[in-house]
């Protein structure tokens, strides 16, 4: 049984997730913590629940999803997992931060790469890696079939879709990713996205204006 905890962090109102199993093995996904208080919120959750953080997962590496990456990595010293294509986006973050008017150091830490169709294990729980480019070239989603949920980052939102006007974004690619990778999941699959409220695959297939 997987427990999903979410936090809304940073000026971009980004959703950071901490998920863990019954043996307290945990993943931290898209650490967007920006302030000291936000970082302490994550650390406190881990501490109070005696969690053992196994990896830091990135759906993608846009700056709003990695503002706390270095802090979380320094705290837990576990590998960061992302798609290899997304490494370029991660490396662009100091430049992107400068455009927003603040300083951001290049990430320093262990990185491992994910591939489409692979699974990552949290104890006995398995998550399938879905490559869903369009918002970002190496964007992935983490699908847990037994509990029917997907952590989808900035691909599919409640009544909307991810932006495609950022570096290497592609509208046609994003629409195809949603149709071929997400809309083939069960209708009751819960979608934990990168901003805003959770939704379900069935609701978006029926009501999302981009697919009517």
Mean of all residue-level pLDDT scores: 96
Our estimate of the beta-strand percent is: 25-35%
Largest sheet: 6 strands, mixed
Order of helices and strands: EEEHEHEHHEEEEEEEHEEH
What is the level 1 CATH name? Alpha Beta
Weakly predicted, low-confidence segments: none
The CATH architecture name reads 4-Layer Sandwich
- Number of discrete helical segments: 6
* Overall morphology: globular
Terminal CA distance reads 35 Å
Q: What structural category arises from helix and sheet content? A: alpha/beta
The number of distinct structural domains comes to 1
Secondary structure elements and pairings:
Blueprint: E1 3-9, E2 14-20, E3 25-29, H1 36-48, E4 52-57, H2 69-76, E5 80-83, H3 87-91, H4 93-100, E6 111-114, E7 119-122, E8 125-131, E9 140-144, E10 149-153, E11 156-157, E12 160-161, H5 171-182, E13 190-193, E14 199-200, H6 201-207
Parallel strand pairs: 3-4, 4-5, 5-6, 10-13
Antiparallel strand pairs: 1-2, 2-3, 7-8, 8-9, 9-10, 11-12, 13-14
Structure description:
With 212 residues, the protein is an alpha/beta fold. The chain has one domain (3-211): Ribonuclease Z/Hydroxyacylglutathione hydrolase-like (Metallo-beta-lactamase, Chain A, 4-Layer Sandwich). Helix content is 25%, strand content 30%. It has helices at residues 36-48, 69-76, 87-91, 93-100, 171-182, 201-207, and strands spanning 3-9, 14-20, 25-29, 52-57, 80-83, 111-114, 119-122, 125-131, 140-144, 149-153, 156-157, 160-161, 190-193, 199-200. A hairpin with a 2-residue loop joins β11 and β12 (160-161).
């Amino acid at each position: 049984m997987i427990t999903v905890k979410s936090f809304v962090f940073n000026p971009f109102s980004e959703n950071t997730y901490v998920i863990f199993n019954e043996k307290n093995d945990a993943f931290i996904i898209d650490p967007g913590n920006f302030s000291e208080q936000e970082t302490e919120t994550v650390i406190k959750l881990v501490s109070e629940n005696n969690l053992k953080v196994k990896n830091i997962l990135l759906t993608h590496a846009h700056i709003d999803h990695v503002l706390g990456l270095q802090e979380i990595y320094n705290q837990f010293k576990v590998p960061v997992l992302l798609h290899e294509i997304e490494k370029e986006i991660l490396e662009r973050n100091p430049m992107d931060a400068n455009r927003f008017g603040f300083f951001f150091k290049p990430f320093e830490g262990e990185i491992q790469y994910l591939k489409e169709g692979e699974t990552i294990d949290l104890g006995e729980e398995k998550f399938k890696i879905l490559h869903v480019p369009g918002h970002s070239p190496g964007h992935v989603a983490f699908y847990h079939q037994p509990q029917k949920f997907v952590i989808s980052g900035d691909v599919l939102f409640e009544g909307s879709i991810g932006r495609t006007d950022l570096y290497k974004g592609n509208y046609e690619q994003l629409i195809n990713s949603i149709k071929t990778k997400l809309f083939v999941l069960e209708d009751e699959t819960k979608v934990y996205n990168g901003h805003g409220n959770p939704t379900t695959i069935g609701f978006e297939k029926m009501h999302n204006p981009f697919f009517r």
